[in-house]
Write a structure and sequence with these properties.
This protein is mainly beta. The protein is 14% helix and 52% strand.
Length: 144
Amino acid sequence: MKHLITLAMLLCLCPAVVVAQNPVTATTTPTVVVAHRSFTGRTSNIQQTVLFTPASTGIFRVTVDVEESDTSDASPVEPFISWTSDFTVVDASVPLTVNQAGVSASASGQITIRAHAGTPIQLIALVDPKERGTYNLYVVIEKL
């Protein structure tokens, strides 16, 4: 009887040992940078500019970073991203979070979009006309 109880306990513990030795891991698909652009030394608006045209429909993350000189404003530069979804053309402002304010300012933000194959992802940046400083704008697009 003692051997039967020991055998039963071993049979119950064996699956737990196997699971502990072979833990289930979540698989993640790495993000891939598909485009990046730099607009440096700017003093005016950035006209509509194609950043990337996806070969296949997918989900993309667009990150924008703005550095500005001669400003104490939150961010006089307002970037807009334009793309085509499955149903329509979409224009969206990229919400910027101020990283540093003062004489020299820095702000960044990102949006996640679903862009249709063969149609461009574009950028427009509008500048507050009262601002007199220069700015640098950097954009990175990742396929998720």
